[in-house]
Specification:
The complex is a heterodimer. Chain A is mostly helical. Helix content of chain A is 73%, strand content 1%. Chain A has a domain of 216 residues. Chain B has one domain. Classes of the chains: A mainly alpha, B mainly alpha.
Chain lengths: 481, 510
């Protein structure tokens, strides 16, 4: 039995159950501190993950589950994200009426779902892991039961999520009906014979709709701003980083692991989706005044940038996606940590609430500035190098298909617009006219460490990209050239 | 380690150190900024002095791998093209850090940004790696936006901030695409400019590739340089920027795009340059004539200087368009001379505004009586701006005209007219309006600062203008061999100039 491969997932699920148990003996006043405990244990699991090696792909459960470099890269990614999100949740705990421990436990279950998704090599595991993520997020988004906006976010996510799951199951059924297989490798082995089968192509298209929902790509991006705005901030952060990354690893596995022959014919489709997603996200972000909503649209735009790396159909392009996600992790989590600490009420999520932040807490102001600068793609931060790698691939492919030049133009236009609204946020931090509230913001040691970590991550990936470039290049090696 | 690493590293290290200095230690922060920039200036002078005019290739080189798989490395070095530019950048940065005494709020952030900007500018000129070349430029560009936004002047500063941010980001992005395309199409798999140049000398880019990449670089850099008609951002941006920022940006950072064209576009894409030479020549008339005429109509001193600075960029473009040894040499000389001049005029206008609270020329007058030193420097700067012999600008501009005359005699004729007549009209009118005439009563109370430190930035910049005006050979001897290397082989092979030979080079292409 190869169950030792899923040791990380087992540990995370056990931790979630353990938190629920420990909750029974913990006095109510102390319950929020369980988040620190969970983060600490996740740190140990993350350290333990380096005992596993992904040099050669190993499979378990009849090939459903695969442990390779790509899976390990994403598992570590999710673990790191979850640690920061849990630290953030502890800060947020006073805004959750009851069931703080359940909030932590659900986060951990969602994390387990993401880690399974990273290893999915079979449509059934793909669906199960996605459902594990999505269903826990239905609850996490609506966790503030007394807040209408949170409930609205939950309902929207539920309805649209269920819809996209339905699309996906239908697609999987069609694929299974044609091929009789669910395993990615087995489908890939059937090769070119399927590329002309319209029912099969339709099935794959529906599966992509389901995955597109997770990464918030056009045309299934519509939920993102509302849900981002209404959900509790740690949920939003986890949704923006973890759930999106899970969508991307599945997208890569399906497109390049299961149906590489089909993908090669779908360049134009991928380019078109990428262009529209970039333009939609950036143009809609322009007039936003609510910071979380702005980040919701910006996350759509970023999904579009990352789709560029998918659309170029090259190994280096996929490595660039992984690199971009790595930078995106530190950048977005840093931004959401600041939002979580500064904006304690929904009315206060307006960008103007940032006024005077540099006097209230220089550390928070500096982190938010770094995050916005990185998102805008300005050196020497992680976002710049990620965009550089993506653009480089698009220019390279431009020689083969002129459609890539349109993608390039859309990306430049998008980045330019985004500079405007990201700088609007920085402007609110440093040079707003009147600041109503100038009370200092207390920062706990755990959050301070997380903030320093995010800042260091953004700078490190921008200044010393060599290590991660090599890691990501190795990680995507399993997906072929 | 190369002296260049120290030149670009010290400001960046000092910026990091300033992050640790408590907010209240304002004097310490000013002192650190001034002292560091002074040391950097001394190092740059030393580098310039030790530079061997006769040596082939790059000097003071240093190389370290950064991202191996992509062929990106930290590589710095100087030849005749950038030696003078680095010296000019360091001198202007020192003057700008002294002129920063006028900043009276949030000093900590200001000095950190100023030092980052200095390090970025010097790094961009010293880099011999395409990636770092762009990287350092962005590092210098972003502080510009923040400085205009936070410490800017005037009612339109928010609008100006966003305008300059969007315009310059667009230019930077387009040129980034051009640089990436160049890297990919060359097939050399390296961002190293030296290796790339060697590779392309052997395997030239196809005409189609050149035709695709050169416009990206020309217009991407063109926006950064304020090539007509992409100059809209410049006057408003400079009018709204705090004095040290305007000095550094107009004086030094703007030369980045020109340097990029000289260092990258000319040697690597000679075919495309020849095709586009006519277009560039006519566009440069847009700068010289159109922006000169607009400058004539300005009522505000900062706007006048802003437009005149845009106009001066035209001479550099004319030198580039001529694409021969004399023209390119002159273009580099104008870049250096204009760097000193732009910094000097913006420093003076900042001083005048501090003293009088206005820059409307109509409201001033007779100020020479109250400000004898600053007034005298302003007069000299204005004369330098209209190309009077004795200042570095004259040497550069006349070299450009000699170089451009054969290909573009009509354009050159108009440019000479624009430089001599239009330039003289607005410069002398500004002198009359500000310094001569009756002194309004409200300015009776204006007194000149007696503190000698205040005079140092003007003295340093003016001295540089005069030194290079009287001894242009200091620059020409360095620039000419380097310029010969970036020109296509037939031109370059014929020219191996001996020492001491300065302006008397015959255009070998004819």
């Amino acid at each position: 039995m190869n169950s030792r491969f899923i040791i990380l997932e087992i540990a995370v699920v056990a931790l979630g159950l353990g938190i629920l148990l420990v909750d029974l003996w913990t006095p109510p006043a102390e319950k929020r501190k369980l988040g620190w405990l969970a983060a600490l244990v996740l740190g140990l699991i993350l350290a333990g993950s380096f005992k596993l090696h992904g040099d050669a792909a190993q499979t378990a459960f009849g090939g459903m589950y695969v442990l390779d470099g790509l899976a390990l890269y994403f598992k570590r990614f999710f673990l790191l994200a979850a640690i920061v999100v849990l630290v953030m949740s502890v800060e947020f705990a006073d805004r959750i009426e009851t069931g703080v421990s359940e909030y932590y436990a659900l986060m951990l279950f969602a994390l387990a779902g993401m880690m399974f998704a990273a290893s999915a090599n079979d449509f059934s595991l793909l669906f199960v892991s996605l459902e594990l993520i999505t269903v826990t997020f239905y609850i996490l988004t609506s966790f503030q039961r007394n807040r209408l906006l949170s409930l609205e976010a939950g309902v929207k996510y539920l309805i649209l999520g269920a819809l996209s799951s339905a699309f996906m199951v239908y697609g999987i059924a069609l694929v299974f009906g044609i091929t009789g297989k669910l395993n990615f490798d087995a489908i890939a082995a059937m090769g070119g014979a399927l590329a002309g089968n319209k029912v099969f192509l339709f099935g794959i298209l529906l599966v992509l709709v389901g995955i597109g929902f997770k990464i918030a790509a056009f045309p299934v991006q519509i939920w993102a701003p509302d849900v981002y705005q209404g959900s509790p901030t740690p949920t939003t952060a986890f949704l923006a980083v973890g759930s999106k990354a899970a969508g991307f690893v599945l997208l890569l596995r399906v497109l390049f692991g299961a149906v590489p022959g089909v993908t090669a014919h779908w360049t134009t489709l991928l380019i078109a989706i990428s262009i529209i997603t970039i333009l939609y996200g950036n143009l809609c972000a322009l007039p936003q005044r609510n910071l979380k909503r702005l980040l919701g649209y910006s996350s759509i735009a970023n999904a579009g940038y990352m789709l560029m790396g998918v659309a170029v159909l090259s190994s280096a392009g996929r490595a660039a996606v992984l690199y971009y996600l790595g930078g995106y992790l530190f950048t977005l989590l840093g931004a959401f940590l600041v939002i979580c600490l500064v904006m304690r009420s929904v009315d206060g999520e307006d960008i103007s609430a940032l006024a005077g932040l540099n006097q209230r807490s220089p550390l928070l102001a500096a982190t938010l500035t770094l995050a916005m600068t990185s998102l805008a793609g300005i050196p020497p931060l992680a976002g710049f190098f990620g965009k550089f790698l993506l653009l480089r691939e698009v220019v390279l492919q431009g020689a083969s298909n002129p459609a890539y030049y349109w993608l390039l133009a859309a990306a430049i236009f998008g980045v330019l617009i985004s500079v405007y609204y990201y700088f609007g946020v920085i402007r609110a931090v440093y040079w707003s006219k009147e600041a109503p509230d100038l009370s200092p913001i207390p920062i706990t040691p755990a959050v301070r460490i997380a903030l320093y970590g995010c800042g260091a991550g953004m700078l490190y990936l921008g200044l010393f990209p060599n290590t991660l470039v090599e890691i990501t290049t190795q990680a995507v090696a399993v997906l072929g050239k | 380690m190369s002296i260049l690493t120290y030149i670009l590293g010290w400001p960046l290290v000092a910026a990091l150190l300033l992050c640790l200095v408590p907010r209240d230690y304002k004097f310490v922060m000013r002192l650190v900024a001034v002292v560091v920039n002074f040391i950097v200036m001394l190092l740059a002078v030393k580098m310039f002095w030790q530079f061997d005019n006769l040596a082939d290739g790059y000097q003071f080189e240093q190389h370290a791998t950064w991202v191996r798989s992509l062929g990106i490395g930290y590589h710095v070095g100087v030849d005749g093209l950038n030696a003078g530019l680095i010296l000019m950048g360091a001198i202007v940065a020192f003057a700008a850090s002294l002129a920063s005494w006028e900043v009276r709020e949030r000093e900590k952030e200001f000095y950190i940004l100023l030092l980052v900007m200095t390090g970025g500018i010097l790094g961009a000129f010293a880099s011999l790696d395409l990636f770092f070349f762009y990287f350092f430029h962005e590092l210098a560009l972003v502080p510009t936006f923040i400085m205009i936004g936070v410490w800017g002047r005037g009612e339109n500063k928010n609008y100006a901030t966003f305008q300059i941010t969007l315009y310059l980001s667009l230019g930077a992005l387009i040129s980034l695409i051009g640089l990436i395309a160049l890297y990919l199409r060359s097939g050399a798999n390296t961002f190293d400019i030296v290796a790339l140049t060697d590779h392309i000398r052997q395997y030239p880019l196809s005409a189609a590739d050149q035709g695709f990449i050169f416009p990206l670089l020309l217009f991407g850099f063109g926006i950064l340089i304020s090539l007509w008609p992409f100059h809209i951002w410049a006057p408003l941006g400079y009018g709204s920027a705090p004095t040290p920022t305007a000095m550094l940006h107009a004086g030094v950072l703007k030369k980045f795009g020109l340097y990029g064209l000289l260092r990258i576009a000319l040697p690597l894409m000679p075919g495309a340059v020849m095709q586009w030479a006519n277009v560039i020549a006519w566009l440069c008339l847009g700068n010289i004539l159109y922006c000169g005429l607009v400058a004539m109509r300005q009522k505000n001193l900062n706007w006048l200087i802003g437009y005149s600075s845009v106009a001066h960029m035209g001479f550099v473009f004319l030198g580039i368009a001529s694409f021969n040894l004399i023209g390119v040499t002159g273009a580099v000389m104008v870049m250096i001379a204009h760097g000193f001049l732009a910094a000097l005029t913006f420093a003076l206008s900042g001083y005048l505004e501090k003293q009088t609270g206005t820059l409307e020329i109509a409201q001033m007058g007779g100020l020479l009586r109250r400000l004898p030193f600053v007034g005298a420097v302003l007069i000299m700067a204005m004369f330098a701006g209209c190309g009077l012999p004795g200042f570095a600008n004259f040497a550069g501009e006349i070299t450009v005209f000699f170089g451009a005359w054969k290909q573009f005699n009509l354009v050159t004729g108009l440019a000479v007219w624009g430089a001599l007549v239009i330039g003289a009209v607005y410069m002398t009118r500004a002198i009359r309006g500000i310094l001569h005439g009756p002194l309004p009563d409200k300015w009776m109370a204006v007194v000149e600062s007696t503190w000698p430190l205040r005079k140092i930035p003007y003295l340093v910049l003016l001295t540089s203008l005069i030194v290079f005006g009287f001894f242009p050979g200091l620059l020409v001897d360095k620039i000419k061999p380097a310029a010969a290397r970036i020109l296509p082989a037939p031109v370059a092979a014929a020219v191996r100039p001996g020492p001491g030979e300065t302006l008397a080079v015959v255009d070998q292409r004819r």
